[in-house]
Amino acid sequence: MHIRPINELDPHFHKLWGPLLILWDQTQRDLFGLSKVVDAFEKIMQDPTEKKNLSPYMADIFGDLAILTRALHEIEIYQPWAATFED
């Protein structure tokens, strides 16, 4: 799938598209890191004008994704286990 560049001056552009497009592309997701992208998404969701652009179903899905990525992050930084994990 090819994604066209986003024009931020477009009235239909929303800040949510940035993290969503990063999550969609495996290379970009690996480059930025899943937990950082989800954190950026959650920060954007604090704005009420952006929050209304997301359906309740998608908000629920991203809530679950946030919990999962946070749990994975905590496991990765836990010592001494983290030293024994392989990539």
Give an account of the 3D structure:
The protein has 87 residues and is mainly alpha-helical. The protein has one domain (17-84). Helices cover 64% and strands 0% of the residues. The protein has helices spanning 17-24, 26-32, 34-44, 48-51, 56-77, 81-84. Helix 1 (17-24) packs antiparallel against helix 3 and helix 3 packs across helix 5 (56-77). The longest helix has 22 residues, at 56-77. It is elongated, with a radius of gyration of 15 Å. The mean pLDDT is 79.
Secondary-structure blueprint of this entry?
Layout: H1 17-24, H2 26-32, H3 34-44, H4 48-51, H5 56-77, H6 81-84
Helix pairs in contact: 1-3, 3-5
Brief descriptors of the model:
87 residues, 6 helices, mainly alpha
- The gyration radius over C-alpha positions equals 15 Å
What structural class do the secondary elements suggest?
Answer: mainly alpha
Strand content: under 5%
Q: What global shape is seen? A: elongated
Question: Briefly, what is this?
Answer:
The chain is an all-alpha fold. It has helices at residues 17-24, 26-32, 34-44, 48-51, 56-77, 81-84. Helix content is 64%, strand content 0%.
